[in-house]
Design brief:
The structure holds two protein chains of two kinds. Helices cover about 60% and strands about 0% of the residues of chain A. Chain A is mainly alpha-helical. Chain A has two domains: about 80 residues, no CATH class; about 190 residues, Hypothetical protein af1432 (Orthogonal Bundle). Chain A is globular. Chain B is an alpha+beta fold. Chain B has a single domain, classed as 60s Ribosomal Protein L30, Chain: A, CATH 3.30.1330. In chain B, about 20% of the residues lie in helices and about 35% in strands. Classes of the chains: A mainly alpha, B alpha+beta. Strand 1 of chain A pairs parallel with strand 2 of chain B, so a sheet runs across the interface.
Chain lengths: ~300, ~160
C-alpha cells in the first residue's frame, strides 16, 4: 500500500464524530429549530450533559446561579455556546495526545486548537460574520489532519524540513510533495467523512491557503487569520513553526492592520487563560496566572 | 526543576536547581539574563513591542510588552544581587511567517524595539538566535547560565 492509500485508510479508522455533535449541527443549521429540539438531542449523551453542566457552573461562565438542567443551560447561554462546549469536549479527546511527528507535547495541539477557535470567534465578530459558532468549530478542528499525518511526518521529517529550508516551500507544501497530502488536505478529508457542513470543511482545507478559494470566503479568511495569529503568538506550535505563508490580500480585503492583529492577540491570550482554567485537568502548561515578575529566593540551609 | 515562563510572563531566580523554560516561541522574544558572580538568572517572554497599544493591559500584564517588561526584568535581577557589569544577556525568538511583503511583522518589530532599548541603555547582547520562521524552545540553567535552544528536533547551545 502506498502512503496516500495508507493515509486514507487511517482516516477511515478515526472514531466518528459523536451522534450528538452531528445532530446538533443539523439542528443549528435549521433556522426553525427550537431549544427543545436541541435539548432533546443532547440529553441522551450522559458524558456531554455532565460536562456541559460542569462548565456552566464554573466560575468562568459566572452565571451567578446553579444550572441543573440542559434546558436552563441553553436558555442562559444560548445554543451556540452549548454547541461550542460539546465540540470542545469531543475535540479534547482527539487532540490532547502527543503528536511527536510535529514535536507537539501532550496537550499542545489541544491548546493551539482552542486558541485558534477563540481567535476565529473574535475575528468573526470583528468581521461581522453571521455565524460565530461555525467559526469557532472550524477553528477548533482546523489541525485535525495532524492527528493522522503525525506518524508519516515523523518518518519523513528530515526530508520535509530539507525542502522547507532549501527550496523555500511552506511546511504544508513540503508535506504535500513528500507524503502526497498536506495536513490541511487530510483534515478536509476527515471533516468530509464526518459529514461536517461544507463551510467548515472549506476552512479546514484552506486554513493556510485562503488564496486558493475563489471567490474569497470570509469564514476561510477568519480561520486563516486566527491560525496565523496563534502561530505568531507561539501558542502550542510545533516543529513546523511559522513556515506558512503570510497573505496580505486577506488583511486588505477586511481593512485590517497590524494594530488589529495585536489587539486580537491580547484578547485571545486572556480568553485562553480563562478556558484553560476550565479544562485545567487537560492543560499541559498553564504557566502562571500571576503576571508579576517574581523573584525567587532560594531557601538557605 | 523546570520553571515554565508562559507568554507575557517573567521570572528571576537564584535557585541553583532551577531551569527557566519558555516553550515554542513564535514572534515572541525571550530575553535571558545571567550573573555568574551571584548565579542569578532571569527570563522574560514578551509578546508585543509597545505598551502604548493598551494602557489597561500594560498595567495588568507589563511583561506582555518589550518596553515595560525588559526594565522590570533587569530590576528584578538587581534585587537578587545581580549587577549590570556582570550580566550576560541573551536573546531568542522573533520569528515570522513566510512573508515577502512584511505583513505580519510582529517578530521583527519585537526585535527592533529591544535593540533600541538596549542601545539607549548601553546594554550589549552576548548571544542571540532570532528571526527566520522556526519556533524555538529556550532553557536557561540558573546554576551555570547555560542556554539551549531546541528547534526542528535539534538542540543548540547559545
Amino acid at each position: 500500500m502506498n502512503t496516500v492509500d495508507d493515509i486514507i485508510s487511517q482516516v477511515q479508522s478515526l472514531p466518528p464524530l459523536p451522534d450528538t455533535a452531528t445532530k446538533l449541527f443539523m439542528i443549528m443549521n435549521d433556522p426553525k429549530s427550537s431549544v427543545d429540539e436541541i435539548v432533546e438531542t443532547v440529553k441522551y449523551d450522559q458524558a456531554i450533559t455532565t460536562e456541559v453542566l460542569r462548565l456552566c457552573n464554573s466560575a468562568f461562565i459566572g452565571l451567578g446561579r446553579t444550572v441543573t438542567s440542559l434546558k436552563d443551560a441553553m436558555l442562559l447561554l444560548g445554543s451556540a455556546k452549548v454547541l461550542q462546549m460539546v465540540m470542545s469536549v469531543h475535540a479534547n479527546a482527539l487532540l490532547a495526545r502527543e503528536q511527536a511527528g510535529y514535536g507537539l507535547e501532550p496537550g499542545a495541539l489541544w491548546r493551539h486548537s482552542v486558541a485558534v477557535a477563540l481567535a476565529s470567534s473574535t475575528f468573526a465578530q470583528r468581521l461581522r460574520l453571521p455565524n460565530v459558532s461555525l467559526a469557532f468549530t472550524a477553528g477548533l478542528l482546523h489541525d485535525i489532519g495532524k492527528v493522522i499525518l503525525n506518524r508519516y511526518v515523523a518518518d519523513e521529517f528530515t526530508e520535509i524540513v530539507r525542502r522547507v529550508s532549501d527550496e523555500g516551500l511552506s511546511f504544508g507544501e513540503a508535506e504535500q510533495q513528500v507524503l502526497g497530502f498536506s495536513h490541511e488536505e487530510v483534515g478536509g478529508i476527515i471533516a468530509e467523512s464526518w459529514q461536517l457542513p461544507d463551510p467548515i470543511v472549506r476552512c479546514i482545507r484552506y486554513h493556510h491557503t485562503p488564496h486558493l478559494v475563489d471567490p474569497p470566503d470570509d469564514l476561510v479568511d477568519t480561520v486563516y487569520l486566527a491560525t496565523s495569529l496563534c502561530l505568531i503568538l507561539g501558542i502550542g506550535i510545533g516543529e513546523d513553526g511559522l513556515c506558512y505563508r503570510a497573505d496580505q490580500d486577506v488583511m486588505d480585503r477586511h481593512a485590517l492592520h497590524e494594530g488589529d492583529l495585536e489587539q486580537q492577540g491580547m484578547k485571545i491570550l486572556s480568553e485562553l487563560r480563562d478556558v484553560e482554567e476550565l479544562f485545567s485537568a487537560h492543560a499541559p502548561r498553564t504557566g502562571s496566572a500571576n503576571p508579576a515578575c517574581r523573584s525567587e529566593q532560594r531557601q538557605g540551609p | 526543576m523546570d520553571l515554565v515562563i508562559d507568554i507575557a510572563d517573567a521570572r528571576v531566580s537564584n535557585d541553583n536547581g532551577a531551569t527557566l523554560v519558555a516553550y515554542s516561541l513564535g514572534s515572541c522574544i525571550a530575553v535571558m539574563l545571567w550573573d555568574p558572580a551571584v548565579r542569578v538568572g532571569g527570563l522574560l517572554h514578551y509578546m508585543l513591542p509597545d505598551s502604548a497599544l493598551s494602557a489597561e493591559q500594560a498595567k495588568a500584564h507589563p511583561d506582555m510588552f518589550a518596553d515595560t517588561g525588559i526594565p522590570r526584568l533587569f530590576r528584578a535581577a538587581y534585587e537578587l544581587g545581580a549587577t549590570r557589569e556582570n550580566l550576560i544577556v541573551k536573546v531568542a525568538g522573533g520569528a515570522q511567517l513566510l512573508d515577502d511583503k512584511g505583513t505580519f511583522n510582529i517578530g521583527k518589530r519585537n526585535y527592533v524595539v529591544l535593540r533600541k532599548l538596549f542601545w539607549r541603555n548601553g546594554v550589549l547582547i552576548d548571544a542571540e538566535n532570532v528571526g527566520g520562521s522556526i519556533s524555538r524552545t529556550v532553557r536557561l540553567e540558573v546554576a551555570t547560565g547555560r542556554v539551549t535552544i531546541r528547534s526542528r528536533s535539534q538542540e543548540v547551545e547559545l
